[in-house]
Design brief:
alpha/beta, single chain, 5-stranded mixed beta sheet, 22% strand
């Protein structure tokens, strides 16, 4: 009978494209006795698991949970004690609004060893795939990554500080708060600041809307955009190859309306 050695590995699955996971992440999946995976994890990654691996869906998406965080924490420990190596497969990176730190704390409290395999966060990968640089000499010297849904399901108050800077701002899990985000930038007089909304980034369903703070809500509604999506604000958005064409079309629409 196989000796059970409890162990938990947090693995970042990347932003959605199955090819955007690390080799080390794939190795962990292959060695897993149990995999607890999220809604935003590409199902293709589960094909790397062994034939006897137990796969458990613990979907989490935006502000809706199919499994509570407390339940997930308990499952990590229970499966580790009864099966051995548990891989917690999480979209993006486990430590960028992935609650990976909380999961490690809980597992450590039960004296179970752990490891972490970083993943590519959507905050840097989806902008990169769209060829939007988060930093650009003379344009943006830093970038902020802000949650659109705190533990109280509110927009982070850090945005109030970010809007006063020239930094690029990436908001995760904030699509439902887009009107609030836009309002804060308008209050700072940044009506014409370039903005992008990227939905289902890195997947075959990827869509992007480019615009300005004052026009983005109407554009997003017209395009029938929805979650999961990230929001990118800053002058660097204008570096997107189609941005100028979008602006011309916007001007044409306004003149003809």
């Amino acid at each position: 009978m196989k000796e059970i050695k409890p162990f938990v590995t947090l693995v970042g699955a990347g932003p959605g494209d199955a090819e955007l996971i690390t080799l080390k992440g794939i190795k962990a999946i292959r060695e897993a006795d149990v995999i607890l995976y999220d809604a935003l994890v590409n199902d293709e990654l589960l094909d790397y698991a062994g034939p006897d691996c137990v796969k458990v869906y613990v979907g989490k998406r935006a502000e809706r949970l199919s499994t509570s965080q407390d339940e997930i924490n308990k499952l990590l420990v229970d499966y580790a004690l009864n099966y051995g190596h548990v891989v917690r497969l999480k979209g993006g990176d486990p430590f960028v609004f992935g609650r990976g730190g909380e999961e490690l704390d809980y597992v450590h409290a039960h004296q179970i060893e752990t490891a972490v395999v970083p993943g590519i966060s959507s905050s840097i990968s989806l902008t990169g795939l769209q060829q939007i640089p988060l930093t650009y000499r003379g344009v943006a010297e830093s970038f902020w990554v802000i949650t659109g849904s705190t533990s109280e399901t509110k927009l982070s108050t850090d945005l109030q500080l970010a809007v006063k800077s020239t930094a690029t701002v990436v908001v995760l899990m904030g699509f439902a708060k887009l009107p609030q985000i836009v309002a804060q930038y308008q209050q700072e007089g940044k009506h014409n600041l370039p903005i992008a909304v990227i939905q289902n980034g890195s997947t075959t369903e990827e869509r992007i809307v480019l615009g300005k703070v004052d026009t983005i809500i109407a554009q997003v509604a017209a395009a029938n955009m929805g979650a999961p999506a990230i929001i990118v604000l800053g002058e660097v958005v204008a570096k997107h190859r189609e941005f100028e064409n979008v602006l011309k079309n916007l001007k044409t629409t306004v003149l003809s309306s």
